[in-house]
Amino acid sequence: xxxxxxxxxxxxxxxxxxxxxxxxxxxxxxxxxxxxxxxxxxxxxxxxxxxxxxxxxxxxxxxxxxxxxxxxxxxxxxxxxxxxxxxxxxxxxxxxxxxxxxxxxxxxxxxxxxxxxxxxxxxxxxxxxxxxxxxxxxxxxxxxxxxxxxxxxxxxxxxxxxxxxxxxxxxxxxxxxxxxxxxxxxxxxxxxxxxxxxxxxxxxxxxxxxxxx
Length: 213
Known about the structure:
The protein has 213 residues and is an all-alpha fold. The chain is 71% helix and 0% strand.
């Protein structure tokens, strides 16, 4: 009969994840600058020095938050999108926007855009990591769908580099507004209805128009 590891061992193995989750909750609530390592230790239920065992400083801890909590969601989105390769570019684009909201917008990770907007100027290295490891891969997925749609004749020719930013903006802004004291969204905000409406408007603008003979 196998012997289970003692509770202390399991607890020690779980500590890095617990520290990351506690750190992200505090970053989202107080901001990066205002959060201290001892605050994170207290929230994680560990001693003051424990976070330093796994992360040399707060910046490296924040980078780990992005890599360990956010990037797996991006990778999951990429895998799901690949499984939908049989759909049209427009159908895939709408599926991607719904997945984005499901994997980030409906989770505590929705606080990240507001956090990055607030802190990017003071902590450029953290902002650069967010840009390179999350924003740019996400942009690449949308860019590929737009280029595919144009090549097939489904979408009209457009400025793809700016179109992808226009497409992303309503999703990011909805996350920011939901995290703000002043929220311009309806009190009974329906995320599925919001993304579906966004997709309808986008596809009406993206579709190639048929020319009459």
